[in-house]
Amino acid sequence: MNFANCIAKSAQTTSIFKAQRVSANLSFWKCRKSCGSGSESTSFPHAGCYDSVLTPPPPPRHCSFCLFARSLCVCLTNKTLSSFLSPTKNIRNMSYHKPEAKTVQDLKDLAQKLRIHSITSTQASKSGHPTSCASLAEIMSVLFFQQLRLNIKHPRDPSSDRFILSKGHAAPILYAAWAEAGLFSVDELKNLRKIDSDLEGHPTPRLNFIDVGTGSLGQGVAVGAGMAYVGKNLDKADYRTYVVVGDGESAEGSVWESLHFAGHYNLDNLCVIFDVNRLGQSEATSLQHKMDVYRDRLEAFGFNALVVDGHDIDELCKAFHCAANTKSKPTAIIAKTFKGKDFPNIENLDNWHGKPLGDQADKVIKHLQGLMVNPDVKLSPKKVGKTGLAPEVDITNVKLCTPPNYKLGDSVATRLAYGTALAKIGADNDRVIALDGDTKNSTFSDKLKNVFPERYIECFIAEQNLVGVAVGAACRRRTVAFVSTFATFFTRAFDQIRMGAISQTNVNFVGSHCGCSIGEDGPSQMGLEDIAMFRTIPGSTIFYPSDAVSTERAVELAANTKGVCFIRTSRPNTAVIYNNDEPFTIGRGKVVRQKPSDEVLLIGAGITLYECLAAADQLEKECITVRVIDPFTVKPLDVDLIVEHGKQCGGRVVVVEDHYQQGGLGEAVLSALAEHRNFVVKHLYVPTVPRSGPPAVLIDMFGISARNVVLAVNAILKK
């Protein structure tokens, strides 16, 4: 068939037969006629991309239209259609050299070894997901022993490639790959899920080869995108990031938030591998093996989308080569796989998720061994190169480049002071970055963007991705990340924050517009659950600064504090009450007003600290003196300070907060005093869902104004 006839035939059959040319120069032809084949007829390289081409396989049976596809393939392999299907400009002009036959066979054998390890380790633990591992075997074999550049002696080498197993339940095959790579003994795999082993059911950074914890599905792409963004734009290094995603988890909206981010920023150093094994936990996935739907969606999100047979070593090698040589866009390898691949009487069958093979294990292992040419195969990962290395960075001892510069009584919102401090520490250390969800002109993170635009990352209105990208950006201590948005919007990313703690992240969260004091915007914008949320995070530190000076110091302290930090900032202006040289320490509060005759201890933070001070003025007119404490940090709380001054005030304490009752400052104080006798605590809080209105009116209406504090003090004195 000559060129003209090919084109003519194509025009006649466009409604039945569709030719898809993907950006990485692999073409996949799918019959649209109901011929019963239900699969791609062939895949082949473009003539201009590879030195050699493969003879296309025969077309599916019972479909005459597929004969045209074969003819067109032949035309292409004969290089007669190079102008018709020319290589895309997004592919670097690099030739693909097919691995030697022995290498291909070794990778196949190693894939079977990984399957066997997954079976034996889950048998030993009597739990786990061997069938979910089996669908990944060839992918993991090619990745670890043909693609990834690793430093086995230092798995978190800043210059080595990154790998994230987003489908964390397939942890046994990840551990098996690292064991085969030589990081630890294969015998250790039998300790999977044991209480004294760090080979846990899902990966965590207790292991030195794991960057982030996974298993709460839908989060790996965001973290990988954060790593890739830093590699491309800050480190400017050659390392690449690979993320394996399960087809089941691709139903998560957070995945598509992250794919949008990666496509928008042209992260060509990111490769996302979709393990499309068709089956979820309890039934088939919604798309099953509709590979064209995956491809079309990913292309629409700006990805270089490659559909491959996920059990074909040759196709995987070609796809990864194209991914590595694609510029200006990320790559998605959409691998058609089968759950329980090569497990007789189990492959592609439902009801095998999360189950060891039990009494079928020996039979399956024997079958897998029979498929191997060299059962003793040993391969090593590629080593990190000597060029394109990540630069050395130092993120210790971050400081404000200049101290706070305010006058007592100045009226400054703490959210504005946050932006000022962010720019200051950014001037001190070039690894300080800011991420925001399109609220930068409200949170004032734009103050960093204005002076260091290359260190500001706009994540748009996609808070789950916002948090995940920050976690990835902070991995391997590459950055000091500050993430800001309205405090209430962090609630939709709670799982990402929770997983960040499991991942031992050092990310700083800044939530503005907290409480009903924001006013007319109404309850949907009011952060009233944020303290409760962040208090539950293991190892978290919660700052609640009340003025501009304490806010700047909170930012400086957070930048140097391990773990998750949360800084709660307010929308209204508040008076500066601290001198510029006032020292602040985590876990140490401040007594801002006191007299020997004080009868009640008032505790407030942010807006309510000023309501307490106003109440103290009113009470003094009634000949009642009260003491006022600013806790500065809600977690850890300065318990000793509260107990000491509470006792001096006769054990009478009033806590006032712009937050719901549960989980906030009041409950933190109550918990702290629970072990002490002779205390009476009155807790003022926002009791129900607020409404729109002027801030002062709302504060009074919902029971946390100075007037309400005066009433509470009088009530507690009468007891």
UniProtKB/TrEMBL annotation:
Pfam families: Transket_pyr, Transketolase_C, Transketolase_N
Example GO molecular function: transketolase activity
InterPro entries, per the entry: THDP-binding (IPR029061), Transketo_C/PFOR_II (IPR009014), Transketolase-like (IPR051424), Transketolase-like_Pyr-bd (IPR005475), Transketolase_BS (IPR020826), Transketolase_C (IPR033248), Transketolase_N (IPR005474)
Keywords from the UniProt entry: Calcium, Magnesium, Metal-binding, Thiamine pyrophosphate, Transferase
Class in the EC hierarchy, top level: transferase
EC number: 2.2.1.1
Statement: the UniProt record of this protein carries the keyword Magnesium: yes
Presence of keyword Metal-binding: yes
Domain Transketolase-like pyrimidine-binding, first and last residues per copy: 412-576
Cofactor(s) of this protein: Mg(2+); Ca(2+); Co(2+); Mn(2+)
CC terms in the record's Gene Ontology section: cytoplasm
Family annotation (SUPFAM superfamilies): Thiamin diphosphate-binding fold (THDP-binding), TK C-terminal domain-like
Annotated PANTHER family: FI06132P-RELATED (PTHR43195:SF1), TRANSKETOLASE (PTHR43195)
Subunit structure: Homodimer.
Family: Belongs to the transketolase family.
Name of the protein described by the UniProt record: transketolase
Species of provenance: Drosophila guanche (Fruit fly)
